TrEMBL record:
Keyword Membrane: no
Domain 4Fe-4S Mo/W bis-MGD-type, residue spans: 6-61
GO molecular function: 2 iron, 2 sulfur cluster binding; 4 iron, 4 sulfur cluster binding; formate dehydrogenase (NAD+) activity; metal ion binding; molybdopterin cofactor binding; NADH dehydrogenase activity
Annotated GO biological process: formate metabolic process; respiratory electron transport chain
EC class of the enzyme, as a word: oxidoreductase
The species this protein was found in: Desulfobacula toluolica (strain DSM 7467 / Tol2)
Enzyme nomenclature, EC number: 1.2.1.2
Keywords: 2Fe-2S, 4Fe-4S, Iron, Iron-sulfur, Metal-binding, Oxidoreductase, Repeat
GO cellular component terms given for this protein: membrane
Protein name per UniProt: FdhA2: formate dehydrogenase, subunit A
Similarity remark: In the C-terminal section; belongs to the prokaryotic molybdopterin-containing oxidoreductase family.
Gene: fdhA2
Length: 681
């Protein structure tokens, strides 16, 4: 130990979905510094957030006591008083209005154990399937699209496998900013293994510097260019007929649907030059293997599920599934977004994606949980629950570790909806923008103060370990929920998180072989169906989860909102390296805030000139839903006609402007495209 440190605790980073392994170095019950652990997936590396973004753990601003809102502000109360108020209210609503007037929002920042207990609480105590989480805003379309194509909605190949790819197609992912350590695998593959990199993104991103091809489609035209690539591959006989014949169905439907997508037609829809499209199709098809890596530039659209299915079509067309260096690889944004989905933090499925509508499944779950009358009705999504509050179709919300007042589209409307609730309970580690609207606020522990597991983007289940004591009276999420269940007369009692994982394994087939002992050294990739099963780094090797892979004929649809004379620019939103999600943790870290203290409007020099704006000036950006002011940042990253804003900041919140139009299948909002106008003030 150095610097008088007394302990070194191995755990998992609490930020992005890469799930880097790290050591917390402890002195006097405080985290002194963080270093990377020399094991998978990061092999010692950490990015700036993981390495330095830990001030928040010991921040003076942490919530330390339960709070109840009164006329003149919040009053500190005991746990008993806070939980009794919530329990009485939930019990009354359940009896008077019915369980489906309540909802629970869980979080990709909670552990698997926390998420499991929260969905069990919603289903067995509240008796509703109204439970959802922020995957609805980032990868709901991945879950829906890949499940429809392959039978399983997750990253198909492990992170380290990127180095086995001969061609890497990155689209809708600013990987160096959002998944920094993973981007190192891409750069190493290009530099040392001579992999060929294709970047398809309207914005110039760091990876474009390493790319052999950079295509710059109009935002919202993904299906068109993906269909265009497949059109060329088929026309030039570059597809894999053996794979298609042996392992897939509905190829003829796909083939027919691709006929119109000639390079000329695709150029007219996307702005991608014909020659560039043809050359890119040839590179991808010549990969053997080629890997597709994507993120929210694909998913956050009203056509999000179609975009994902189209990428699945492309990979199957060339036979790049179930092999090293291939696959379709969605990068999950937050540390446990994969796990929150796996644990059934979704309105239509129990843990392990078992449908709530299936009577056999329901009977099994009733037996396992020793309850009767689980609801057969799929619940509402977060994008349905919050608007439903405006009409009193939802009367109470229990929000754990989420901050929709910054993260959800059309924040002005979100605020009206949340203020219309009879009871809003917010459980978090800080007083968030959403917490300020709550009737009851509950103080929770952060990742350094609890035991449990996170499942990273590559389906690797990994341990987190308690390193320091929580501040004040803060408690772990699952402990709070179990105490609340007790107040409502329902016994939910566990000795520790290990006991919860044992129950998870007993009801979740893909986690059946998982124990804390087995996770001690390295994580395990699910599916891990037995205690002696080694886990499954690559999915769909012999057969797809569904048996055969399914091709889908997908037609291009324009985004829900297009530019017009009044709103002539497109706004697209995204993330920055130095901030994380709604800033709850990173904005409590001095160094990160010094580098990225405020929002900005990234714009091309031509668009700025047309609007009479200079770099650094404050401008007003408005959409049909609202207006924000932020500093202009003229950048070569921006393409003419499109401006970019990071969504992290509550001040100048990009989501004041964004559109609530939903993908009809996944109910994900179109956060990546809306029409805006810019004004010099
Ligand atoms: Fe944490 Fe992601 Fe950075 Fe790794 S890449 S240190 S998981 S934020």
């Amino acid at each position: 130990p150095r610097y008088g440190e007394t302990e070194k605790v191995r755990t998992t980073c609490s930020y992005c979905g890469v799930g880097c392994q790290m050591h917390l170095h402890i002195k006097d019950n405080r985290v002194q510094r963080i270093t990377g652990a020399d094991t998978a997936p990061n092999n010692g590396s950490l990015c700036v957030k993981g390495r330095f973004g830990y001030d928040f753990i010991h921040s003076e601003e942490r919530l330390t006591h339960p709070l109840i809102r009164e006329k003149d502000g919040f009053r500190k109360v005991s746990w008993d008083e806070a939980l009794k108020k919530i329990a009485d209210h939930f019990t009354k609503i359940k009896l008077q209005d019915g369980p489906d007037k309540m909802g629970v929002l869980v979080s990709a920042r909670m552990t698997n154990e926390d998420n499991y207990i929260a969905q069990k609480f919603a289903r067995t105590v509240l008796k509703t399937n109204n439970i959802d989480h922020c995957a609805r805003l980032c990868h709901a379309s991945t879950v829906a699209g890949l499940a429809a194509s392959f039978g399983s909605g997750a990253m198909t190949n492990p992170i380290a496998d990127i180095e086995n790819a001969r061609v890497i197609l990155v689209t809708g992912s600013n990987t160096t900013e959002t998944h920094p350590v993973l981007s190192g695998f891409i750069k190493r593959a290009v530099k040392f293994n001579k992999a060929r990199l294709i970047v398809i993104d309207p914005r110039q991103i760091t990876l474009t510097r390493f790319a052999e091809k950079w295509l710059r489609p109009e935002p919202g035209t993904n299906v068109a260019w993906i269909n265009g690539l497949m059109h060329v591959i088929l026309k030039e006989n570059l597809h894999d007929p053996d794979f298609i014949r042996q392992r897939t169905i509905d190829f003829d439907k796909l083939k027919k649907s691709l006929e119109p997508y000639t390079p000329e037609y695709v150029a007219s829809l996307t702005g991608i030059k014909e020659k560039a499209l043809i050359e890119t199709a040839r590179i991808y098809a010549a990969g053997a293997p080629s890997s597709i890596i994507y993120c929210m530039g694909i998913t956050q659209h009203s056509s999000g599920t179609d975009n994902v299915k189209a990428l699945a079509n492309l990979a199957m067309l060339c036979g790049y599934m179930g092999i090293e260096g291939g696959g379709v690889n969605p990068l999950r944004g937050q540390n446990n977004v994969q796990g929150a989905c796996d644990m059934g933090g979704l309105p239509n499925v129990y843990p392990g994606y078992k449908p709530v509508t299936d009577p056999v499944v329901r009977a099994d779950m009733e037996k396992a949980w020793q309850v009767a009358d689980l609801s057969p009705i799929p619940g509402m999504t977060v994008t349905e629950m919050i608007p439903a509050a405006a009409e009193k179709k939802i009367k109470s919300l229990y929000i754990i570790g989420e901050n929709p007042m910054v993260s959800d589209p059309d924040i002005g409307h979100v605020k009206k909806c949340l203020k219309n609730l009879d009871l809003l309970v917010v459980q978090d580690i800080f007083m968030t923008e959403t917490g300020k609207l709550a009737h009851v606020v509950l103080p929770a522990t952060c990742f350094a103060e609890k035991n449990g597991t996170f499942t990273n983007t590559e389906r690797r289940i990994q341990r987190i370990r308690k390193a320091v004591s929580p501040p004040g009276n803060a408690l772990g999420d699952w402990q709070i929920i179990c105490r609340l269940a007790g107040q409502m007369g329902m016994g939910m009692s566990y000795k520790n998180s290990r006991e919860i994982m044992d129950e998870i394994a007993s009801v979740t087939p893909s986690y059946a072989g998982v124990t804390y002992e087995r996770l001690e050294e390295k994580g395990i990739h699910w599916p891990c169906p037995q205690k002696d099963h080694p886990g499954t780094p690559i999915l769909h090797q012999e057969t797809f989860t569904n048996g055969k892979g399914v091709f889908h004929a997908i037609e291009f649809r324009v985004p829900a909102e297009e530019t017009c004379p009044e709103y002539p620019l497109i706004l697209t939103t995204g993330r920055l390296l130095y901030q994380y999600h709604t800033g709850t943790m990173t904005m409590k870290t001095a160094g990160l805030n010094e580098i990225a203290p405020e929002s900005h409007i990234e714009i091309s020099s031509e668009d700025a000139q047309n609007a009479g704006l200079r770099d650094g000036e404050i401008a007003e950006l408005s959409s049909r839903r609202g207006m924000v002011t932020a500093r202009i940042s003229i950048s070569p990253k921006a393409v003419n006609g499109t401006v970019f804003m990071p969504f992290h900041y509550a001040r100048a919140a990009a989501n004041v402007l964004t559109n609530t139009a939903l993908d009809p299948v996944a109910k994900i909002p179109e956060l990546k495209v809306c029409a805006v106008k810019l004004r010099n003030i």
